[in-house]
Amino acid sequence: MKIHIVTDMEGVTGVYDFDNHCTESGRYWEKARRLLTLEVNAACEGFFEGGADEVQVVIGHHFESIDRELLDRRAVLLNGRGDRLYPNGLDDNCDALAFVGQHAKAGTSYAHLAHTGNIYTTDQRINALSIGEYGATALCAMELGIPTIFASGDRALAEEAEALTPGVVTVYGKWGRCSDNGVSQSMDVKTYENYNLASVQLSPEVVREKIRAGAKAAVEKLLREPESFHYPDIKPPYYLVREHRGNNEQLPFALVGESNSVSDAFNKMYSADNKRIPLDQVKM
Questions:
Q1: Cα separation, 270 vs 41, whole angstroms
Q2: pTM to 2 decimals?
Q3: Is residue 150 within 8 Å of 141, Cβ to Cβ?
Q4: At a CB cut-off of 8 Å and minimum separation 6, what does 233 contact?
Q5: 250: β partners
Q6: For the segment 131-178, what is each residue's pLDDT rounded down to a tens digit?
Q7: Peptide bond into 166 cis (omega under 30)
């Protein structure tokens, strides 16, 4: 059994903000890399204990956000984007998808460091279903017939994952202290960047223990009840929209991708030659 882990950094316990922890120039970048790598190691331990034969780890944050020298020696590391941005290194040789260090989507109440791709995004939807970074890769896995079995991050991410992909095993180590309820839609970039920084955090060591146990339980559940993992009932054609907030002289706009394939819709949306369109021209 082969597990594909997608990593991010903002959902890691011990990571507090964008500037100091989540960028290479940040004061605590090396600490954040170590914390993320240790959470991935905890997941690897659980997956192998539960019955996995292989684990591959794809870097979903900046390309050096995993410390290869600290990473579990049994894991294979995928770095860089390859030929296509989506499906995030996943292929049909994998048996299950998992997430470590993931955060909630933009605009989520009581989330910590919530965003979708970047802090400019206000919402992302596929066939009118709002999704974040978690949903983007999970729905690519759906298209490949691969179950999403595990996700760790903040509590809002756990709730988002359970709602979008019922059956997934989730673990959280922190939660945000600010409500949203739509107020962030009208914020400028700098205001939103500093809006959801407040959090309550558990001990990183305790959270790693929870991740290990959760990952083990997820694999055991997959082996015991493979039919217990589910996806939303959406079908092609897919209409993908990503709405952006205004910034300086730039008015709010949207990027759109349309295809009969989820991954193709995302790759079209992110294409360098894709045109920005006014929000009033968005279909759904």
A1: 31
A2: 0.96
A3: no
A4: none
A5: 247
A6: 999 999 999 999 999 999 999 999 999 999 999 999 999 999 999 999
A7: no
